[in-house]
Amino acid sequence: MDSKSKRPEGAEDRISQLQDDILVHILSYIPTVYSVRTMVLSKRWNNLWTFVPSLHFDQLDNRIGHYRTWYTFDDFAKFVDGALSLHNSSTIRKFRLHIGRIQLIREEGVSRIRDWICTAMRHEVCEFDLYFCPNYQLREKIELNLPQRVFLCKTLEVLKVHSNCINYPPTKPGYFPSLKFAKVTAEHGDNSSMGELFCNCPVLEELSIDAHLMKKDVKIWISAPELKTLRTRILVNDDERKVKGISINAPKLENLFVYTDLTRYILRNAKSLVKANIELTDFEENLSPELLNRATALLAGVSSVEYLHISGPNYVACSLPNFCNLKQLKLILFGCSYLEYVMELLKRSPKLEDLVLDIDVRSWYREEYVEGYEPFKPPEIVPICVVSHLKTVSITHITGHDDQLGVVKYLLKYGQVLRNMTIFTCGALLFKTSHITEEKFQRKILKYHKSSNTCEVEVKFENKGVVSKYCFPCGSSNLHLDQRYRR
């Protein structure tokens, strides 16, 4: 610290003059190792940290520059033991315990961790945040059984657990009586015990599960009568994906976010569902019959939603369910054989108002996709939503091929209530994939007939980070430069 940053002699220490409850509140926002160090400031600060209702223990917090001062787990454990024994507050509102991969932890260490957790639960903890991931490269197979006090704690409202070695007992009636938010991350390891962790959660409102399952035939049960938001990221370490799947019974569920390699999903009583985001990963364009059935079942389970986001391969169009309430649809499309799929979705979504198509351009660089295109073949019957409900259309990463432009032309021709169509691309992408310039692309768009007199078309080109926005206003036949801006 240089001389300019030092407090002048005789200057008033206004922070130390604050009331105790204000200082304690300030200390609750910093790691416990630093709040303890405030004792050296003056006698005024000597015992304040012991009344802080939030305890944050992280083995990486105690640093000098880039060097950690916890050389072993025992050093870290001694500090935690001492801090808990001196703590004077009757309530620990938030208890955060993070132990990373760098430490060698033995059975006696696991026992001490359980003791710390029990101490926190006895102090009526409201939020419990545990990160515990021992380093398996040290060939230490560690298992941590969460104490029963965690499940019976009447004050626990928020639970966050990230681990690769925790065993969870099946929850029973009476467990998690006040839990409203839960986030569980299970890394590689035997995490099959989490299957029944959330099968009895009477007041749970928001749940997030991120798991990489290592065992076959694992089934996850979720039963929560008050659950409104569910986020799942389930991946299976099994080429045949023999996991039994996820069963969800949540009659008040409104928001569902799924990231999966097509683990089987079974949704029961999902009549309140409003928004669904489904992202499928690591799939070839043509799905096997078994995976196709799982995809169809998942979409059927969310068919009542108003807002739907799908990212993944193209399903067989005839296997799609009807989306009678759908108002907004966003598709991130893989490959180029998706047009029948898009049109079928339009047919099955009679109330659709907002359509977003995001084309995954990676597949268009492959020659087998670029060559041999057939122009877009419009359906014989125009979907009801295109004529009577569709108001906004956005197409991103368009490459200028005839089938894509055919969709643009079709929607402009039959979109009687269309208000806005936005097309986003870049000059390099147009030229590389279809040998078309920006000027030629603009002229093509200008030629298309618009059924709606209130429709405005915007074409955005990106070149070297600069976006040019061209606007085709309502009732005009000229496309003019609206603005340029750097992205």
TrEMBL record:
InterPro entries named among the record's database cross-references: F-box-like_dom_sf, F-box_AtFBL13-like, F-box_dom, FBD, FBL13/AtMIF1-like, LRR_At1g61320_AtMIF1, LRR_dom_sf
One Pfam family from the record: F-box
Domain of life: Eukaryota
Cross-referenced SUPFAM superfamilies: F-box domain, L domain-like
Domain FBD: from-to ranges: 384-460
UniProt cross-references to SMART domains, sorted A to Z: FBD
Protein name: Putative F-box domain, FBD domain, leucine-rich repeat domain, L domain-containing protein
Organism: Rosa chinensis
Lineage: Eukaryota, Viridiplantae, Streptophyta, Embryophyta, Tracheophyta
